């Protein structure tokens, strides 16, 4: 809320704070999404303060025209915001205006006339089984100086990504106890929990890593470790995949 505390009149600031509070307590929105909505509205409030020549209050927000909203989106586009970001920002604004109407503060029909930016349609292109098999071995880039436990670690992480459908962040936050059964309980984006099978090939890869890992693994800390013993950074895996992709001649998609 500090992003727009100085760019809104007191009544509009109170409305914005009540809106964010409702998203947190009633909608139970995840902290990351809540932060994104607050940031979006902060950018909108800052633009409107400049656009109107003063910090807008509820009356000014109610009287904004479709062209005013389009001017904000055009500014964001000019600043490099992509269609997906603009669509989320428009969703944030609509959420705020719905709150204002539902609580009897004001309504604005102009916002409903705006269409969300068209998002590019990207269809994921999975690896073939053969390519995935080459990738998860993770040894094509190894040298005589690469520790065996590092090779086993990388192979275990890549196997979890492919065989269990995990995101990198999900794989790197696993603790040892989570991999001791036939299934994984994963808390992903939006704090949503899902159950995925831990396939035998993944169990074997994790077991090989745990056997070779030279560091003590506290039960409540991530089990995948960097070369200095700290938690393995996601950037390391992203770079590894990029390098393996090039070395194995895999498509960038």
Task: Tell me what the structure shows.
The chain is mostly helical and 253 residues long. The protein is 53% helix and 4% strand. A hairpin with a 5-residue loop joins strand 1 (183-187) and strand 2 (193-197). The longest helix has 22 residues, at 31-52. The chain is elongated, with a radius of gyration of 24 Å. The two termini are 38 Å apart.
Q: Characterize the main sheet.
A: 2 strands, antiparallel
Runs with pLDDT <50, length 5+?
A: none
- Averaged pLDDT: 86
Helix share, percent: 40-55%
Distance between the termini: 38 Å
Give the quaternary arrangement of the chains: single chain
Rg to the nearest angstrom? 24 Å
Report the structural category: mainly alpha
Strand numbers in spatial order across the main sheet: 1-2
Strand content: under 5%
Count of discrete alpha- or pi-helical segments spanning 4 or more residues: 10
Strand tally: 2
The backbone outline, from C-alpha atoms, is: elongated
The SSE string, one letter per element, is HHHHHHHHEEHH
Summarize the structure.
By secondary structure, this protein is mainly alpha-helical. The chain is built from 10 helices and 2 strands, in the order ααααααααββαα.
Describe the structure using short key phrases:
single chain; 253 residues; mainly alpha; 53% helix; 4% strand
